[in-house]
Design a protein that fits this description.
11 strands, binds NADP nicotinamide-adenine-dinucleotide phosphate, 10 helices, Rossmann fold, globular, 41% helix, alpha/beta
Length: 277
């Protein structure tokens, strides 16, 4: 079984992004990403730092706006102001959100042209309609990895486990746009393994540590493990039991080092696309 190297894929994407940023800067535009951080927790702070560092490395300006413990009206005002600010090209609002605030409530206040992580329901609707839109970077990472690994998607049986607006649903839409035959499974799916075993490609986006084992995987399948589940010792594990599927799958993305780094690279590529206008 091959372990797919997400860090290498990320590096290759970022090389192109760096060149594109240089060209934009030479033409007088500094691509700028605004990161709104509405909660004060350690995992979020770590993730935001990693985005800021990656942005700086490729020449993108990252503007962090800390609004810890904010309210929905305050967040909406900030997102609307950033949407109107010509010096800002991309906007993300980091989750988790404060208690009582939902992404549905606030996502619609990010201008679609700057919605580089596909948080506005309009972006998801446009994606469903086959119109140009930013998809959430994690969903884009699923397809990007499969394409770079030269996994044929047209006509392929692809099973996605998870139907969130952030990962499962947009990943399924992007795979459908690549002409895959897509099955979406969720918590109410009967006999999950019977479905997942049909997948030449299996995408796991559940959020349950090592939930999918050898019985869930079709022999020779390519497995994309989106799950990031914290372990007691401070590490991360995916939704797939990698050791258990080793003798069944042809390839799998590791956690960490798989989907995560590709997601960050694609978020930055989206900022470049937004800055081009
Ligand atoms: P989510 O909103 O909690 O959605 C989880 C999905 O899994 C739901 O659709 C749910 O079904 C389904 N599900 C739950 N239990 C199930 C079961 N027993 N059998 C089948 N389906 C089940 O999570 P998310 O935001 O999509 O994130 C999914 C995972 O990806 C998490 O581990 C998250 O940390 C990770 N993630 C990683 C990245 C990255 O860059 N690597 C980015 C974002 C998220 P229902 O709809 O029926 O409830």
């Amino acid at each position: 079984m091959t372990l797919i190297d997400g860090r290498a894929i990320s590096k290759a994407i970022l090389e192109t992004v760096t060149a594109d940023v240089e060209a934009l800067r030479a033409a007088g535009t500094t691509p700028t990403l605004a990161i709104v951080v509405p909660t004060d927790d350690e995992a979020t702070a770590w993730y935001v730092r990693s985005i800021v560092r990656a942005a700086e490395r490729v020449g993108i300006t990252a503007r962090q706006i800390d609004l810890h413990g904010t309210t929905a009206p305050e967040l909406i005002t900030e997102l609307a102001a950033l949407s109107a600010d010509p010096g800002v090209h991309g906007i993300i609002c980091q989750t988790p959100l404060p208690k009582g605030v939902t992404l549905d409530q606030i996502g619609q206040h990010i201008a679609p042209a700057k919605d580089v992580d596909g948080a506005n329901p309009e972006s998801l609707g446009r994606l469903a309609a086959g119109l140009p839109a930013f998809a959430p970077a994690t969903a884009q990472a699923v397809v990007e990895i499969l394409q770079r690994e030269q996994v044929p998607l047209a006509g392929a049986d692809v099973v996605v486990v998870g139907r969130s607006n952030v990962v499962g649903k947009p990943a399924a839409l992007l795979l459908l746009a690549e002409n895959a035959t897509v099955t979406i499974c969720h918590s109410r799916t009967r006999d999950l393994a019977a479905h997942t075993r049909q997948g030449e490609v299996l995408v796991a986006a559940v959020g349950r540590a090592k939930m999918l084992g050898a019985d869930h995987v079709r022999p020779g399948a390519v497995v994309i493990d989106v799950g990031t589940n914290p372990t007691e010792d401070g590490g991360l594990v995916g939704d797939v039991d990698t050791e258990a599927v080793e003798s069944v799958a042809a390839a799998i993305t590791p956690v960490p080092g798989g989907v995560g780094p590709v997601t960050t690279a694609l978020l930055l590529r989206n900022v470049v696309t937004a800055a081009r206008g």
